[in-house]
Every structure is written in C-alpha cells, then in structure tokens.
Backbone:
C-alpha cells in the first residue's frame, strides 16, 4: 500500500467523522441570522355585500399578516324628486364585534340641485385603520422553524346607512332613489426576511 | 492528441471549460443586482472600463504563465522564475489555497442549486417559494447535497482533461447558454408587454450613484467573475496546444463571461418586473434572489410556464456552479499530479474529501461559509492576482511574444506594460480602499456597515464563537 493510500484512508475517516459531527451538532453550529420585517401593499378581493333597508353592510376578512387597511367607499345616490331636501349618507368602518375603527363619516345633501331630478355627486369616503404593528426585527438560529405569521379570523365591516331626501314639492311621479356603492380595500402586510450574506466570489 | 500531462481535444472544448470556470452564480444573479443597485448602465460602463484595465490584462497574464510553462501553478512559477527553489512559487501556493478555500463553500451552493432542481419535480419550491431555502440551506440536508456535488466533481476531474472536464463542459455550457437565452427572450417579451419595468430597473443609468466604493466593488466583481487568483485559468491554459492563441482565447473567455452577466441582467429583472415582484425583491441579496425571489416569480408566472421556466433555470444554475467547482478542484489536483506523481483519481478523491470535510462547516453555518469566502479573497486572491500580474509583466520571459502569437497586430508589449503598472496598481488601490472604508466612505465602518477588513475580523470572531 502506498503512502498516498494511507493518507486517503485517513482523510476518508476524517470526512466520515466530520459528517457525523455535522449532522449531530448542526444546531449548535448554526449561525444566528438577523430577521427583518418589511411591509408591502396588496389589494383585497372585490367585496360583495347585502343591501339592507336604507343602506348596506359589507363584510371582509383581512389577509394573513395584515397590518393596516385603507378602505375607500364611493356611494352613488340617484333619485328623482322635484325639490328634494335633506338626505344623508353615513359610512362606518367597524372591526369585529362591531367596534368602530374610525370616525363615522357622514355627508348630507340639502337643497339638491335640479327640479327634474336629483343626483348627488358620487360621495367618497376613505378610512385608514392600523390594527397591528409588524413584529420588531429579531434574530433566529433556526430559520426552518421561524414563524411569526399572524392570521386574522374576524370579519370587518363597512356599514352604509342611507337617509333619502324628502321632496318638499311633490313631483308628478313620486320620489324614488337608488344607491350603489363601490368599496375597495387596500391592505399592508408584513413579510419576514432572513438577512443573509452572500459571498462575493461566486 | 492529448499529451502525457493531458491536453484539450479542441479549442472549443478549452473555451467551454474556461468559460465554465468563469461563469457562476455571480454572473446570473449577483451581477444583475449590483448593476441595478449601483447606477444601471453607468455601473456597466465602469465595469467594462475596469474589464479592459484590470480583467483582461490579468487573465491574459495568468493564462500566459500557464501556456508558457505547461505546468500547474506552483511549478509554473518555479520554471518561469528560472529557479526551482524560487520564492515566487508561493504565488502558486496562494492560488491553490484560494481554490481550496473557495471549494469549501462552493460545492455547498452548487448543492442548493441541485436540490432546487430536484425539488422542481416534487413541488418543493412551488408550494413554499419563500420558505424552502431557509429550511434546507444549512443543516443535514445541505451536508448531503454538498457530498453529492463533491462526488460528481471528483468523478469528472478524475477522468482527466479531455475525458472528463472537456466532455462535461462541452455539454453543460451550451445547455446553460440555451437556457439563459431562452429565458431572456421569454422574459423580455413579457416585460415589454407590462411596461419595461424590469428592464428599466437594471439599465436606467444613474451617474450620481457612482462613488469610489462602487468602483472598488466593480473591480472586485471583474476579477471574481473571471476566476482570477485561484490558479484555475493558469491551470487550464497549461493544457492548451502550442498553436492556440492566449490573446484570442483569453479575450473570448473574458467577453463571453461578461456577455453571460449581461444576459443575467436581462433575465432576472425582467422576470421580477412582469411578475410584479420588483418592489418586494429588487434589492434582495444574491442567495435571496436565486432561491427566494425567483421561485416566487416562477410561481407568479402560472402553473405550466412557471414550472418549466423554474426547472430549467435551476438546472442552468447547477451547471454554472458545477463547471466552476470543476475548475477549482483541478488546481490542487494538477499540483499533486505534477509534484507528487500521484494518480489523478487518487489526487481528486483526496482533495475532494478534504474540501468536503471543511465544507461541512459551510453547510451548517452561514458564518463559516462567508468566512471561507472572505479569507480566500482578502488573504489569497487579491494579493495573488496583483503579484501574479506583476510577475507576468516583469519576471516571466516571453509573455509579450506569447500574447502576439497568432495575431496580426503587436499588442503584447502594451498588455505587458499594463501588467507592470496600471493593473496591479488598480487592484491594490481598490483592495486597500475596500479593506479600510465601508460603503459610505467611513473609515473602518461599524458592525452594521463594516469595511472588508473589519468584516473579516468580526466573521472570524463569530465563527469561532459559534455564532
């Protein structure tokens, strides 16, 4: 047997030992990795709601890791009256169990124009609600087991209440009103990122 | 016909092997990120200038030494210095040690690419594009895949120059080019349809971004990209036929390497652009880009297209990494074969087992992986490249004549002048600058934003402290 064969056998044994030690002690050898949390935007799927007398309720669930929601409500309120007076649209953004997450916004319409018809300009309401702060940056030695995801199981609501104007001068056909609303919700959500160094010489 | 020491069967085979040595993960993923983050086309202009001033003279100098001596790194310096006991031989040792240190972690990274390729058939990264890399990068799985890649590398190198390395690279490199070009065409068409956001992100020139630190980074990118200072180009050139031209082939290799880097830029950022992930992952690091951002992008492409593009991408990534690992292993193997007259396969097995054993550390700890890279760069490569270039310019006989061989014009004397003056000066200036100043031009830097040498000190401390 040549000397090189002895060396190869010895190094081979060392390689086996290195493998065993690596498999057994990999957790002790693992580096501490920095974990940062970044926030990103996303749209929520289009909402559907049900009409109730004098308005509508829209429910939606925020997605995983959501931190804030920006709700935009556009209400179009059309009607026909000879001389309408009064009338209002009230929009509320409610959290689970009906808790209010923002001030109620209300717009009134008095002395609406046009003796032959009433059409409110589309009314836009915007609510911004922050209900969760992203986790603070941290460290981990076990990226595979790292989990700070947050899942929300509760419904949020956009509640719209309509009060139709009254017609101070009765029209020929009688007053009637319709409304429709578009609601978009934009969320921010957090995502963790393991800060990893990359070698330069690759 | 292959010589007793081994020889390339064809010029094409040599160029494929050498381009394979140069092209790696950095071309496909790191260069695009550097370009996008440091001024786009402005950075590219600086890079090309440094390629001409630093990269080309350095690679031609190193290749000349290999072809003139027809020997592996250590003996090449002894022969060309005209003294078998010459202290210049230490440069050969530097190159060999650099190759070994890089191999400690390079096969680990190649193992990740191979694992991701196999996971393409098992829904691995498809079902968890963000989390898979974190789960498998360090630990027993990574040790196993490192072993698999090392075994493949050892096998190919043990088969010899023409029977192993050339045969493997003439298949892998054309396949890689076809994969990259195919993905580039697809990604460019899709990015065009969605407003060129990805292309703009990587190409938009911004000269205000250029600072001395970026020039230093571009210099480093040039010679890491060309595999300089690790003995690989010298070793490969030592197997060239006499009639081959160092100037022609070396230039082909350098520009092909840059071409692949530009294709990488046209691949990665258009993909992020048309899948809407530019904001989220546009500044991701190299590993995050390859193993988190792009898998997410492939998933966003849709079921059929995303799976196909992702699968071929990871195959290409593996080919790029494996071809580089092969050239690195060949360096110490050739030194052993030339000096100890060891059988090639025994040398390959021995070196493979050594690099695998230390690679267990890189496969379990990010700190050790990065430390091996920083030691290779700061201790062996940069100084080795500068001194090798000076040796080729001042000491080695016949370099100018070798560079003129096969050419109509006489450029050798100009290239030798560069090797004597401009090239090593630029290397050393940027090395010292990067060692002492961080990215914000602060002397020594801080823990969160260190200079290269502070980073090396802290990595060494953390590695031995088990952090």
Residues:
């Amino acid at each position: 047997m040549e000397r090189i064969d002895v060396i190869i056998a010895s190094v081979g044994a060392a390689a086996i030992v290195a493998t065993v030690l690596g498999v057994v002690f990999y957790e002790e050898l693992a580096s501490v990795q920095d974990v940062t949390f970044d926030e990103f935007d996303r749209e929520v799927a289009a909402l559907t709601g049900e009409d109730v007398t004098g308005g509508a309720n829209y429910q939606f669930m925020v997605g995983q890791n959501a931190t804030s929601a920006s709700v935009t409500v556009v209400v179009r309120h059309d009607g026909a009256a000879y001389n309408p007076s009064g009338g209002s649209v009230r929009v509320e953004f409610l959290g689970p169990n009906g808790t209010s997450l923002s001030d109620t916004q209300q717009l009134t319409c008095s002395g609406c124009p046009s003796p032959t018809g009433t059409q409110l300009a589309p009314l836009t309401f915007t609510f911004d609600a922050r209900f969760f702060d992203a986790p603070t940056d941290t460290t981990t030695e076990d990226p595979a087991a790292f989990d700070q995801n947050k899942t929300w199981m509760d419904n949020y609501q956009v509640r719209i209440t309509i009060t139709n104007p009254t017609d101070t001068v009765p029209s020929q056909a009688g007053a009637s009103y319709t409304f429709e609303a578009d609601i978009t919700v934009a969320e921010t959500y957090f995502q963790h990122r393991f800060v990893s160094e990359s070698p330069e010489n690759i | 016909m292959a010589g007793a020491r081994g020889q390339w069967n064809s010029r094409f085979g040599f160029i494929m092997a050498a381009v394979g040595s140069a092209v790696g993960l950095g071309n496909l993923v790191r260069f695009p990120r550097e370009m996008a983050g440091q001024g786009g086309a402005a950075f590219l202009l600086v890079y090309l200038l440094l390629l001409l001033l630093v990269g080309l003279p350095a690679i031609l100098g190193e290749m000349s030494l290999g072809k003139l001596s027809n020997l592996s790194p250590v003996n090449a310096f002894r022969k060309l210095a005209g003294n078998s006991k010459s202290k210049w031989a230490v440069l050969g040792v530097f190159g060999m040690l650099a190759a070994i240190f890089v191999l400690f972690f390079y096969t680990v990274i190649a193992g990740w690419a191979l694992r991701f390729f196999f996971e393409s058939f098992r829904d691995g990264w498809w079902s968890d594009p963000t989390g898979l890399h974190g789960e498998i990068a360090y630990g027993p799985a990574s040790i196993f895949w490192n072993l698999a890649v090392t075994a493949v590398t050892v096998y190919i190198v043990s088969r010899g120059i023409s029977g192993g390395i050339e045969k493997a690279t003439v298949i892998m490199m054309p396949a890689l080019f076809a994969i990259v070009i195919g993905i580039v065409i697809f990604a460019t068409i899709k990015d065009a349809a969605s407003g060129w956001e990805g292309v703009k992100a990587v190409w938009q020139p911004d000269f205000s971004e250029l600072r001395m630190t970026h020039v230093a980074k571009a210099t480093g990118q040039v010679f890491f990209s060309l595999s300089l200072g690790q003995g690989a180009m010298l070793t490969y050139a030592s197997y060239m036929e006499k009639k081959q031209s160092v100037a022609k082939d070396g230039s082909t290799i350098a520009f092909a390497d840059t071409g692949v880097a530009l294709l990488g830029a046209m691949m990665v950022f258009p993909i992020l652009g048309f899948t809407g992930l530019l904001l989220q992952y546009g500044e991701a690091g190299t590993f995050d880009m390859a193993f988190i951002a792009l898998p997410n992008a492939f998933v966003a492409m849709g079921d059929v297209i995303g799976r196909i593009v992702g699968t071929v991408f990871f195959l290409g990534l593996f080919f790029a990494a494996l071809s580089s690992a092969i050239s690195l292993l060949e360096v110490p193997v050739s030194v052993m074969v030339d000096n100890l007259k060891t059988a090639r396969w025994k040398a390959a097995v021995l070196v493979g087992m050594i690099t695998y054993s230390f690679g267990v550390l890189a496969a379990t700890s990010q700190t050790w992986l990065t430390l091996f890279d920083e030691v290779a760069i700061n201790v062996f490569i940069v100084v080795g490249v500068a001194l090798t270039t000076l040796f080729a310019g001042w000491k080695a006989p016949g370099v100018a004549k070798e560079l003129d061989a096969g050419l109509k014009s006489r450029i050798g004397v100009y290239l030798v002048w560069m090797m004597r003056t401009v090239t090593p000066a630029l290397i050393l200036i940027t090395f010292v600058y990067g060692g002492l100043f961080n990215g914000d031009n602060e002397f020594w830097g801080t823990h969160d934003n260190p200079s290269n040498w502070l980073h090396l000190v802290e990595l060494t401390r953390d590695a031995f402290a088990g952090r």
Remarks:
- The mean pLDDT of chain B is 92.
- The longest helix of chain B spans residues 303-340.
- The CA atoms of residues 361 and 368 of chain B lie 6 Å apart.
